[in-house]
Every structure is written in structure tokens, then in C-alpha cells.
């Protein structure tokens, strides 16, 4: 199946924790950017990766993911143009089409209804917190009430697959506040949650505030307790913790040993180390044996495409060892782990021939389990995931 990432780098305001390739106060460049994005997609038609051979990856639906930035700043007409340009790469009639939406920019039911009519069938809303003072500190442009209203509007116009993003380990956040957030969103009856521990990036205003002592973040023990509380409460509510940072509601079509039906198909392609194309300023693609990154500045990106050039800033050659390592440390993030069949199909080598000694060591430490089909993280291994993944780098 084919997978395509589309980067929309515009925001009304940059959040204090964000180091993504995003730009505020650049709305006047959106029209030219959409023109360039459509032109780049025409260039990519000659670079469509082959269909994956592994059973798990072959079962995925094709996918298009509008990420950002804030894709919901685009008009429905602009999104329609982009999808028309993408149709030669991804069969959109069968595709999961995801769009990241900021509750502060979703313009009510009419906008959401137009998105749904265009074929967008999955929304990912960046809520981040239900505590209004925290939202203001983060630079978010919505309130908790507006987040709830945007979610309910999306449900009312027919979106059956909605993800909500939240961050824990935020400045001033304690376990009681995090518990209240989890209990509240569980009542919303959401399909899917992505819960991320705050990472302080050096280039961000939030990093400067914390290092200067103006804000304090929870220590590692408290942040770990927040993660464990999420596992406890979401598990009690019936959600499946199918990936280290992601939970999903069970679905009647779910099959044992397979990713959940309501999981993001595009993200599953990443975790299964599938090939995917990417377009847009700063977008990263992966077509073995290389990955590539586009030019980051909006005007540089537009100028390159207008000159008839692919806007690539750099390419990174990948070896067979890179492919094997990435297949392991990405796949182990999933609760189904890495199957022997998937590893062999993706790399052309038996898993035990490449990592036999490593698997034995990690198993003896209680960090992974191994059966006749696959390798998985244990509960302890999930808590120490980065230590496990380092064994494959």
C-alpha cells in the first residue's frame, strides 16, 4: 500500500514547546505554498515505492496524512486541490485520510462537514490539556471548552475516527490534575488517544523558561507515575494500549495478533518501517535505501519547486543494517511487537540470525518475550523502552 505525508507548516501562533518546522503570521504565503505542494506531488509520481511484502504492512490501508503546523488553517478548496494532486500517488477512494486540527482553528460544523465530504475520514485534534491556565502557558489558542465543542462538532458531522493528543509532565502539572483530565476525556467516549511526555527542546521558549527557573516541570518519578496512571485508567475504561504512546477503543473487526482497526494507518506504516513519500517544507520521506528531507524555509521550498526542482535539502543513504535496526526499534513500540515473518519480509534475513544474542540478553533481563511468532516488549520493557531500543542502534 502507498503512504503519503503532507506537511502544512502554518500556525496562527507557535506553541511554547514546539520545535517543528512551523511558522506564524505567514498566512499570506498559503496560496503560493499550496501551488508548490501540488507541483511537488506531480514530481513525486515517478518515485512511488513498491508495495510492501510483509503481511502486517500489506494489510494496511493506503494513507494520506496532513500534518503540521496547523492543516486546519487551509480552506476546504485548498485541501481539495491537494487531494486531487495526490490521487496519482495514493488511491484516495480506499485511503485513510487524516488531518491534524487545532480546536482553535476548526471553524464549526460547516467546515468539518466540508472536510468529510472531501474524503477526510480521520481527525487528530491537538488538545494537549484541559486546564485553561496551562493551555495559555503553552501558547495554545483554544480553551478546554472549545476543545470539547470541536470534538462534539466533528462527531455530529460524521467523523467516526477521531484522535485526541495530550501532553503530560507539563510545568505545574500534578497527578491530581492529570487524573482529572483522563477521567474527563474518558467520559467523552473518544476512539483514540495519543499521550506524550513533554520533551523540552532547546530551541523553544518553554525550554528557556524552565532553564531560567521561571517554570518547573515534574521530575522523572512523577512523570512516570502519570504514564502509569494513564495505563491504569484507560485500561480500566477498556482501551487497548497498542503502542507506547497510543491507546485505542476495541473494534469488532480487530483480529488477534494484528494492529487494531481504529489505529492510525499512516502511523502504523511508520511503526512497521514501511516506505512512504512526503511532500512539503521540511517533510521527511523514506524509500529504502534512503530517506530524504525537504528544504525547511517556506520561501526556499516554494522557489525550488517553481524552478522545477525537487525541493530536497538532504538525503541519507540506508544500509541493510539500518533497515534491520529500524524495523526492530520501531516495531517493538507496538503491543504486537515484531513478527519473525515481518522482519524476514522487510529485511530478507531471519530475525534470530541478525539479533539472536541481543534477543537472548533482553529476554534474560525480562524486557522482552519471545514466542513462536514474534518478539514483544514486556510491561517492564515498555517502561524502559529507550533502553531496549538502544540495543538495536
TrEMBL record:
SMART domains: Elp3. GO terms for cellular component: cytoplasm. One of its GO terms (molecular function) is metal ion binding. The keyword Cytoplasm applies. It is found in: Cytoplasm. Pfam families: HemN_C (PF06969), Radical_SAM (PF04055). Coiled coil: none annotated. InterPro entries: Coproporphyrinogen-III_oxidase, Elp3/MiaA/NifB-like_rSAM, HemN_C, HemW-like, rSAM, rSAM_sf. GO terms for biological process: porphyrin-containing compound biosynthetic process. Signal peptide: none annotated. Keywords: 4Fe-4S, Chaperone, Cytoplasm, Heme, Iron, Iron-sulfur, Metal-binding, S-adenosyl-L-methionine. Gene3D superfamilies: 3.30.750.200. Residues 1-240 form the Radical SAM core domain. Its main location: cytoplasm. Belongs to the anaerobic coproporphyrinogen-III oxidase family. HemW subfamily. Probably acts as a heme chaperone, transferring heme to an unknown acceptor. Binds one molecule of heme per monomer, possibly covalently. Binds 1 [4Fe-4S] cluster. The cluster is coordinated with 3 cysteines and an exchangeable S-adenosyl-L-methionine. PANTHER family: COPROPORPHYRINIGEN III OXIDASE (PTHR13932), RADICAL S-ADENOSYL METHIONINE DOMAIN-CONTAINING PROTEIN 1, MITOCHONDRIAL (PTHR13932:SF5). This is Heme chaperone HemW. It comes from Chloroflexus islandicus.
Amino acid at each position: 500500500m502507498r503512504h503519503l505525508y503532507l506537511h502544512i507548516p502554518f500556525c496562527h501562533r507557535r506553541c511554547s514547546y514546539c520545535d517543528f518546522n512551523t511558522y506564524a503570521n505567514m498566512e499570506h504565503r498559503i496560496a503560493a505554498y499550496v501551488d508548490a505542494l501540488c507541483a511537488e506531488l506531480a514530481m513525486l509520481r515517478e518515485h512511488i515505492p513498491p508495495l510492501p511484502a510483509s503481511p502486517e504492512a500489506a494489510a494496511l490501508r493506503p494513507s494520506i496524512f496532513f500534518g503540521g503546523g496547523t492543516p486546519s488553517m487551509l480552506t476546504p478548496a485548498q485541501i481539495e486541490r491537494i487531494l486531487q494532486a495526490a490521487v496519482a500517488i495514493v488511491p484516495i477512494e480506499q485511503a485513510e485520510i487524516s488531518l491534524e486540527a487545532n480546536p482553535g482553528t476548526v471553524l464549526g460544523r460547516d467546515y468539518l462537514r466540508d472536510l468529510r465530504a472531501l474524503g477526510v475520514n480521520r481527525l487528530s485534534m491537538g488538545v494537549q490539556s484541559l486546564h485553561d491556565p496551562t493551555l495559555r502557558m503553552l501558547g495554545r489558542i483554544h480553551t478546554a471548552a472549545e476543545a470539547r465543542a470541536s470534538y462534539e462538532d466533528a462527531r455530529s458531522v460524521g467523523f467516526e475516527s477521531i484522535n485526541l493528543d495530550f501532553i503530560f509532565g507539563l510545568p505545574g502539572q500534578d497527578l491530581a490534575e492529570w487524573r482529572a483530565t483522563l477521567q474527563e476525556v474518558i467520559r467523552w467516549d473518544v476512539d483514540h488517544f495519543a499521550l506524550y511526555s513533554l520533551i523540552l527542546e532547546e530551541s523553544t521558549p518553554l525550554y528557556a523558561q524552565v532553564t531560567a527557573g521561571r517554570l518547573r516541570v515534574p521530575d522523572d518519578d512523577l512523570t512516570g507515575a502519570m504514564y502509569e496512571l494513564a495505563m491504569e485508567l484507560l485500561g480500566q475504561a477498556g482501551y487497548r494500549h497498542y503502542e507506547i504512546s497510543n491507546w485505542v477503543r476495541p473494534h469488532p473487526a480487530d483480529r488477534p495478533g494484528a494492529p487494531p482497526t481504529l489505529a492510525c494507518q499512516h502511523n502504523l506504516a511508520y511503526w512497521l518501517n514501511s516506505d512512504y513519500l512526503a511532500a512539503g517544507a521540511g517533510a521527511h520521506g523514506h524509500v529504502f535505501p534512503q530517506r530524504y528531507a525537504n528544504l525547511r524555509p517556506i520561501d526556499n521550498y516554494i522557489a525550488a519547486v517553481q524552478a522545477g526542482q525537487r525541493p530536497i535539502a538532504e538525503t541519507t543513504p540506508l544500509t541493510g543494517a539500518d533497515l534491520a535496526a529500524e524495523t526492530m526499534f520501531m516495531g517493538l513500540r507496538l503491543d504486537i511487537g515484531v513478527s519473525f515473518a515481518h522482519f524476514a519480509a522487510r529485511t530478507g534475513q531471519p530475525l534470530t540470525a541478525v539479533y539472536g544474542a541481543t534477543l537472548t540478553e533482553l529476554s534474560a533481563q525480562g524486557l522482552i518475550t519471545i514466542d513462536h511468532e514474534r518478539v514483544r516488549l514486556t510491561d517492564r520493557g515498555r517502561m524502559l523502552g529507550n533502553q531496549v531500543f538502544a540495543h538495536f542502534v
